[in-house]
Each structure stands twice: as C-alpha cells, then as structure tokens.
Write a structure and sequence with these properties.
The chain has about 450 residues and is of the alpha/beta class. The chain folds into 2 domains: about 55 residues, no CATH class; about 260 residues, Aldolase class I (TIM Barrel, Alpha-Beta Barrel), CATH 3.20.20. Helix content is about 40%, strand content about 15%. It is built from 13 helices and 12 strands. Strand 1 and strand 2 form a beta hairpin.
C-alpha cells in the first residue's frame, strides 16, 4: 500500500490489491473511491478547495474518562524486564512498598467521577464510557481494597446512568500475574465483569518471570488461568518479547497452543521488550538500535502470520482500528492527562500509570486543596499534543486512527525524551499489520459500494 500526502489531513492512496484510486481524509476519517480517469492534479486541486472552505473539527474523547489505579506497589514477582521496577531505585515505580487504603479510593473516585460527569454533560448524553485499569505491583496482594474499588465504581456508574438516562459503557480491567488467583477470586472477578490481563512468556516464563525468592512461577500462573477460564472470565494474554526475535514468537505461540490456551483466548497482546520506566527516564534519550529494515519486516509479518494461523486479534489491532474509523478518527488518540488520570497508593496523581513518579508529570494529590488546578496544568501539556504535531504521525495516513500503543506519550517521553517524537521501532513493527487491515477494509468498502 502506497500513499502520498496531498494536503493538510489528506492522502492519495493506491493499494497493491486494486488499481483503483482512493482519497483518505484523516479527520473526520473518510474514504473516497475515485474514478480512474481523475488525474492526480485534479485530486490535489479538490483537496486545496476543501482545506480552504472549512476548518475540520479536532475530535476528542467527549463522554469518556479513564482511571488507572496502582492499588499496591508490592509484588510477589521479580520479572527481569518489569517496566515499573527500576534498577536505579528501590520499589515499584521507585515508590515505597505500600497498599492503597479505602480512604484514598473514596477520595480519588470523588474527584475522578466529577470529571467523568463533566464529560457526560459535554456529550449531551449521546455517549458515555468509563475505563478502569487496576495494576500494581500485584493487585491481588491488596484484594479487599480492590473489591471495594470495584463496588464503588459500580455504584457511581449506576447513579450517573440513572441521573442522565444513559447507558454507560464500563470496562474494568485488571493486570495480574495470576499466581494468587483462587476459585473464589475468579468468581468474584466474573461478578464484576472484569477483563483479566495475564502475562505468560511461554517456555522462557520461569526465567523471565520468577517469584521474589527466585522460584519459577509458571505452574501457579497456569493454574490461576485455568481457574479464571472455569469461572467464565474475559481473559487476555500478554507476552513481552525481545524485539525482532521471530524465533521467540514461534516458540511462544507453540507453547500457547500446546497448553490449550488459544482454545479459550482470542486476544493476545504482544509487547516489544523495553527498559523499565525509571531506567529509561534516567538514561534519556535512549533508543533501540541495530535492527535492519528486514528484521522489522520479518517481525511484523510473523505477527500477521500467527494471528491468521490461530484466528487471533493480536493486540486487538482490528478492533481498535475499526473502532477509530467508525468514530471518524481522533486528534488525541491517547487520553492520558486529559481524559485519563492515574492514582498511586498515597493518592498522588499522574497522566497515566507509566509516568508515575516522574516529577514533570506530577498532578498533585487527591487530598490537595488545589488539586484541580494542578490536574488542569498537566492537562494543558497533553492538550497541545495532537496527532498533527507528533513526529512522524503528521505525515502518516494512520494519523487519526492508529492504535494508541504506537505513539504512546509515555513511551515517547521515556524513550526519546520528547512527548512529540515516536520511537521509530514501534512504528516499524506495527505499521505493516495496520496497513494490511486498512487495505482489506478499503477494498471491501469499494467492492460493496
């Protein structure tokens, strides 16, 4: 698939599967099938007229809010690549070992739900969605407070839904290593409709994800997953893989198949390995290098092959891409700082959980009297970060529909030192897969019209 930028937010496209010409408008996202007799110059002239005649709306996350809760900074694992455990500081995120208490939960929700209600009002009751992400440390080490959090969020969602006569899309998600999952815990998570995210690193799992005392954790993790499956939980697998190692990908998916995991799970989130948050921050700017274009292509193509072989939506690309297309694209693909906040066990606020304990992004504490002013100050930083200002997104056809992982603000800052510069390896690894999905979508659209 080849494209040429022909104006602000417009791209002229020819696909490898069709001789037809297409014009892509990236905001709002639209696809125009062009007659073959239309010349490239005529397309450019039309684009110029469109750009001059109207200012395109920068769509945002109206009606949406998200909360990341680091419910504990304690963990029973010592994963060798943990993004939250730095070799330069003690404790996860460089924070002291601490559990969140119910008081911080209540004060955090009081603030966050006020922001969410404001977004509901902005959307005129048309759309409403609240995302809750619970992480740690290992969240199940603070299980009772976690249950309290889930109960309180449900109460708020029910109240707001009734007050505004609107169906609120609510998506609680829990990141756990699964080693502490009991049948009772699995049933309780099912009651709250929690999607559970578990990392399983295949044949290298024990080496890469040991307990704190050095013992391998694989058998306990697989037992926990089995309990979650029996209870009917929504489950997503994750794997942290060495970037460019296609042999590791093959071993990983063969392991999943051998253990019957792919029979029950259709979403696998493959994450290229990177240094921990604070290691990356302390060594700015850090860049992964030494990979050839061929290595990137092999890695991307292997992800495509494996997703087709096992009928998987690897990293939920297809769902995310098509959802973005359906809403017409977004000028701010990541809600961090503006429509999302993260809270630590002590009540400190940050734009997202990956930027916790980075002084530049501290947004105050839920117990501060002027916390709203501090949150607004951080929001202004992220408001300026639209996809039309991020490099190289400003010149990409996917600029308003790309999966948020590629231009994640946290990864941009931690790996390049700049919120506006995307680490090139993420783009190179994931773009071939997105190109394939978009090309198939456009061809199908043209054939059915």
């Amino acid at each position: 698939m080849k494209w040429v930028k022909v104006g602000d937010r417009y791209f002229f496209l020819r696909t490898e599967k069709s001789q037809s010409k297409f014009l892509i408008q990236t905001l709002p996202f639209r696809v125009f099938a062009l007659p073959n007799e239309v010349s490239d110059e005529e397309v450019k002239e039309w684009v110029e007229l469109q750009t001059m005649s109207a200012e395109l709306e920068e769509k945002s996350f109206e009606g949406f809010y998200a909360l990341d809760v680091v419910i504990t900074t304690k963990c029973n694992f010592r994963c060798i690549y943990c993004y939250a455990l730095s070799s330069k500081a003690q404790g996860f995120y460089g924070l002291k070992p601490q559990d969140m208490d119910t008081g911080i939960v209540e004060e955090s929700l009081l603030l966050i739900m006020e922001y969410f209600e404001q977004e509901i009002v902005k959307s005129n009751g048309k759309d409403a969605r609240f995302d809750l992400f619970i992480t740690g440390g290992e969240p199940l080490l603070n299980y009772n407070t976690m249950v309290f959090l889930l109960e309180k969020v449900e109460e708020y969602i029910e109240r707001l839904s009734t007050q505004y006569s609107i169906a609120i899309e609510y998506s609680p998600e829990l990141a756990t290593n699964a080693s502490l999952v009991t049948d009772q815990i699995a049933r309780r998570l099912k009651e709250y409709n929690v999607q559970v995210v578990v990392t399983v690193d295949g044949p290298m799992h024990n080496e890469r994800r040991p307990f704190a005392d050095g013992r391998g954790s694989l058998s306990q993790v697989l037992e926990g997953i089995e309990r979650l499956i029996r209870a009917g939980n929504k489950l997503k697998l994750q794997a942290v893989v060495p970037l460019g190692d296609t042999n590791y990908l093959d071993l990983l998916f063969s392991f999943y198949e051998k253990h019957g995991l792919l029979d029950e799970i259709k979403r696998v989130h493959v994450i290229p390995q990177a240094a921990s948050i604070l290691d990356r921050y302390y060594s700015l700017p850090s860049r992964l290098s030494g990979f050839s274009e061929q290595a990137y292509d092999l890695y991307a193509n292997e992800l495509i092959r494996l997703s087709e072989k096992f009928n998987l939506d690897v990293k939920n690309y297809q769902g995310r891409l098509f959802r973005s297309i359906n809403v017409g694209g977004l000028a701010h693909r990541c809600p961090a700082g503006r429509w999302k906040i993260a809270v630590t066990p002590s009540g400190d606020l940050y734009p997202c959980h990956q930027l916790i304990n980075i002084p530049e992004f501290h947004a105050g504490n839920v117990r501060d009297s002027n916390v709203k002013q501090k949150v607004e100050k951080i929001a202004q930083i992220f408001q300026s970060r639209s996809v039309f200002k991020v490099r190289p997104c400003e010149n990409c056809i996917f600029q308003t529909i790309c999966i948020p992982f590629v231009d994640c603000p946290a990864r941009c800052f931690l790996e390049t030192g700049d919120l506006f510069e995307v680490p090139q390896h993420y783009c190179r690894v994931h773009r071939p897969y997105m190109e394939k999905l978009l090309e198939d979508f456009i061809i199908h659209l043209a054939e059915s019209s």
